[in-house]
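so my prof wants the structure for this chain in the C-alpha cells format not the other one, which i didnt know existed until like an hour ago. anyway here's the sequence
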Amino acid sequence: MYIKPLSLSRDKQGSEAKVCDVIFNTNLYYKRVENDELHKTFLVTVSLEAIEDKYKPIELKLDKNNWIILKNKIYQEPDKDDHRSKPPLIVDITSQVNELKMNTRQIKPKRY
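here's what i got, hopefully its the right format
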C-alpha cells in the first residue's frame, strides 16, 4: 500500500476537498478484495487508519462508516512530479567520460 500526499481538489458540488490516493497491489485487490465485502471493508478501514496516522500532525479525521470506492479508476498514469519515478534507462555519459579523460594524467611505464 502506498499513500500519496494530500492534494486539494473539488468535489461534485464544487467545494474544496482534500484528496489522498491510496495505491494497492492489483493481485491483492483482484484475488481477495474485489468480490469479498468483508475483505474490502477491512482493507478500506486499515487504509483510512493509515491515512489518519500519516496526517496525525494536522489532525485529519476521516469518516470510517461513509466511504466509497471510485469506479473506472483502477490505474492512473503516474504524476510527473512523483518522487518514486525511475530515472531513465539510457543516459548519455559522453561528457562525463571526456571530463574524466581530461582530469587524469598519463602514467608512463617505468623502464628498468
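also thought this was worth mentioning. The CA atoms of residues 28 and 36 lie 12 Å apart.
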